[in-house]
């Protein structure tokens, strides 16, 4: 929420336009798309972590990779008012 | 067979929680109250005004269905590592959808689109292509709703409740409060559903491995059980890691399923209900919390193997969907098993409600308004959608009651392949208008044909079916000298794209006439100003421009 109300005339339809949503940061999104599909990375039982075979703990860890990459892209491309 | 008299506590807890969410479903009509619900933006999209938290619960409740919670561990139980595809699938979906869904939100906000077919209609100006997308969406969604009933049924079976009446009552209540409250009902109930699911799973992954002697026993016991030969094929049932033949299947299944999920009309319904672009982007990084949960849920399959849980047998067929409820029954005190069953049961209501709204909206916007009553007012649209949502749920119940539930599972398998065929027109359409609408229509039909043709060829040795026995296509069926398997939907969408691109190149070369594009470049990045009122409240009816 902005502290000052924008003048009504500037946003007649209550919306904002900007030219593009492209950004070099968007390429970072490819990392959590490609890495979880590289089966040779994790298709093994060892090393184990907390009794979990590699196949299971590493793929669960990829969740953090996904969260991290999307969060960075969101922050870097956020509209600054 | 279990008897209901042994499960009184579970039944009472289950019924109480079920009654609680039913009351919430009806009360939802007053929640974040709109002027009236006589507008599709209000009834079908909750006013397009949901913030980050509500969207998180709603999308979580929408994408991770009761059937997922029951079927994924069942697959891990039956086949081992391949069932864990659900984890990469639900990780890569969010970076994939991150940009596409925000662009789709913007253009839909700008033009008042409610369904994916609305967008296709405006973007490509082709009623034929829009109709194909709408019908594909409805056909893919219907069996998915029926599957939610199978989720509830699995729980009822384990509690010893037989007969169809409880199922009919549950769905009748669901139908009535969806009719009266629209998308607000599942949005409100999703809070209860997800809280219960998180609670149950966190308790389960602490208590059950502890009772079984630790995680190394869970994995060790599962490995031994999976190494046993399958009596039907003589091959081991599975293993803790992938083998040389199912890696390609794992990759294509994860990628194909991820591409399909946000194309389902009900996913878009929840996305369009968000109030601005930031809400969607934030959710794309917050929703993987559910994926982590799903990974843990998948491991319930191994816990069931180690604990020696046997699927319940009814009509001579072993129903592996019962292994999760049976595991809870064996491991939890009665009252908590009741909570767990309620989590699954309520987990079925949220997506079933959203799916029926999405299918009803497709019918209203892309069949009723396009072909039957072009001058329909917003109020008439809302009424039609409400009635259509009742019909859709009636259809789902009829499938379960009068046809074999296996039929619904087969249809859903086909549905995933079908919905993937809308990828070129919906997901690529958000980025490019180069593809010609005729070529897209031809590609869609080609993709449907290839997909259904391949699924028809797949047998299932486990239940003796000769056709539609799964989605893993052995490449040897296509005459290739290999034992490798691939996901059907992936091949079908490649065929679809190939036809669409080649035909577009030919049509553009020969100067075939094109239809107008109602959208502009800026529409795809437009955002709502922080204080702007909900679109429906401004009094401007949602219209399909470009007619």
Offer a few descriptive terms.
heterodimer, A: 81 residues, mainly alpha, 3 helices, disordered N terminus, B: 547 residues, Sodium/glucose cotransporter, two-stranded antiparallel ribbon, two-stranded antiparallel sheet, 21 helices, 5 strands, 67% helix
Number of helical elements of chain A:
3
Helix content of chain B: 55-70%
- CA gyration radius of chain A, whole angstroms: 20 Å
Number of strands of chain B: 5
The main β sheet of chain A shows up as: none
Give the terminus-to-terminus CA distance of chain B.
Answer: 59 Å
Could you describe the largest sheet of chain B, including whether it forms a barrel? 2 strands, antiparallel
CATH architectural group of chain B: Up-down Bundle
What is the approximate shape of chain B? globular
What name goes with the CATH superfamily of chain B?
Sodium/glucose cotransporter
For the termini of chain A, the CA-CA separation is: 10 Å
**SSE order of chain A:** EHHH
How many strand units of chain A?
1
How much beta of chain A, percentage-wise?
under 5%
Mean pLDDT of chain A: 74
Order of helices and strands of chain B: HHHHHHHHHHHHHHEEHHHHHHEEHE
Structural class of chain B: mainly alpha
Query: What is the rounded Rg of chain B?
Result: 23 Å
CATH level 1 name of chain B: Mainly Alpha
Stretches of chain A where pLDDT is under 50 for at least 5 consecutive residues are: 1-14
Flag low-confidence runs of chain B. Answer: 536-547
